[in-house]
Design goal:
With about 160 residues, the chain is mainly α. About 65% of the residues lie in helices and about 5% in strands. The chain has a single domain (about 1-155), classed as dinb family like domain (Four Helix Bundle (Hemerythrin (Met), subunit A)). It has six helices and two strands; from the N terminus they run αααααββα. The mean pLDDT is about 95.
Length: about 160
């Protein structure tokens, strides 16, 4: 379990760096052939564990439902976020991981509704959900790197 959190935090650090080092206009551009942008991928990564861990465990979310609804699976970028929204997502990159870690330590994910993910990976418990989330975040980091390449190509 400790290794999963270590990997998750390393990925979040990379996402944090992307968020802070990418020119603002590039965060919101959708290159030709793509249906989302760098910002959407980062925000989506923040909200997904809320659904996988808290939602499937019947617990209250630790971030605003509005953010979850805006960036959950099946959504697409819808204009530029406010400065306040960007600051929240930035802070949640790390604070939500710490919150999840504490909730695991306190046994708060003991109830879990089994779930089949889009790539056909079945989740039977919260540990499965955490492991899948690490995989999921890696996919979105790959998407972000592809988006960055496409943006460079289009310059």
């Amino acid at each position: 379990m400790e290794k999963l959190f270590d990997i998750l935090l390393k990925n979040r650090k990379i996402l944090h760096d992307v968020l802070h080092k990418t020119p603002r206009e590039d965060l919101f551009k959708i290159p030709e052939g793509y249906n989302n942008n760098i910002w959407w991928n980062i925000a989506h990564v923040v909200v997904t564990p809320q659904l996988l861990l808290y939602g499937l465990s019947g617990r209250d979310f630790t971030i605003e439902k509005e953010l979850i609804d805006k960036y959950k699976k099946g959504t697409f970028p819808d204009g530029e976020p406010s400065k306040n929204e960007m600051e929240k997502i930035d802070a949640y990159l790390f604070s939500t991981v710490k919150h999840i870690q504490l909730d695991f330590e306190h046994g708060r994910f003991s109830t879990f509704q089994e779930y089949m993910t889009t790539p056909k990976i079945g989740l039977s418990n919260a540990t499965d959900a955490l492991a899948f989330n690490v995989f999921h975040e890696g996919l979105h980091l790959g998407a972000i790197l592809a988006l960055k390449k496409a943006l460079e190509r289009d310059r």
